[in-house]
# Entry
Amino acid sequence: MGPSTSGAILNTTPKSTKTSHKRVLDMSLPGPDHGDPDHAFMLANKWMNATKLAELVKTQGLVYKKGKFSAIEEEQLRAAIENFRLSRGLTDEQLLDIIFQKNEKGKDNAFWSEITSALALRPIIAVYHHVRRVFHPKKQQGKWMPEEDAVLKQAVADLGQQWEKVSEIVGRMSSDCRDRYRNHIANRDVRVTGAWTKEEETELTNIVTEMTIQQGKDIDNDVFWGKVSDRMGNRRGRQQCRIKWTDSLSKTVKNEGQKPRWSAQDAYILVHRVDSMNVRDDTEIDWKTLPDSDWNLWSAHSLQRRWLTMKRAIKGYEDMTHQEIMDILRVKKAQLPPTSAARKRKVTSAANIEESVESEPGDMGPSASKGLPEAQNGASDGQDRDADGSTEDSDA
# Structure
């Protein structure tokens, strides 16, 4: 279910609620529908890549979910995997042999189909890659050391970007090797770090608006950050460009060169838009769906960071369900702030953006990304996401 519009929220009388203490994840709450039974069977049994899935979306109206797995999905997967293990009388070692079958053609389709069926709208190939990452014995090995970087650099020089083979040499997961190389090793000799200059910010703004608005695409979600980095001469990496844009420049460009301030009305709208989605946990939120035509200054990444700030301000939030947190925030944000307190904001057209970049570059001074760690989900999950929805550790 999509969120209520900001306009509807500003005329909404908030619900009165009572809080109750439950588990952090309430698995008894109803989840999303599995949709068309034929499509659900197809998703759980046919190994389709992103291109084929996109084709079926257009030709058959297929609906499927992509992006980071929610906390509820993680629990559902773990339960489905354990049920499979117990029903077959398998040991943990035998289960890992099934998950990490080295021969791709020897995959246990019954296992992957059964656990995929436990989730709504997830393609089997996405579940396959996700589970193999989550259970990988080389997962989360800590900070990269200089000697590992040297081994990684040499392995790529010898093997190219064959990440599975590189992984065997480096001793890290293939996705970790890929991310480390793309974000920190490649073009290191020309990479610039530290605060962005006004000239760099103007260059990035020109590149992103040319690639999106001038081509009728979305300024936040239709960006291929690898291409942006290439056009900047790789002086700034794809991750640097993405964070600078989503955390700083996007909202400034949309506000005609003036850096907007987060207001009490913004917080009110955010709480009630999240409330209207009726999710079981905030990791189920697709943050890209929250902005609308009347409330569009803040990127998905910015909105999630604001949400996390509000949530973490609640004492004991770690031991509360999403519904309990929502009850508290709904009461805190029960009153619509006075209209006079809200700053007037405009939706900026492509023409206005071009003009503001050319005539008012001083309005976008250098700034460093600050605030909370990378957000958890959607376009703001801390991964390097491109316009096709893929990430540095894309699931589908």
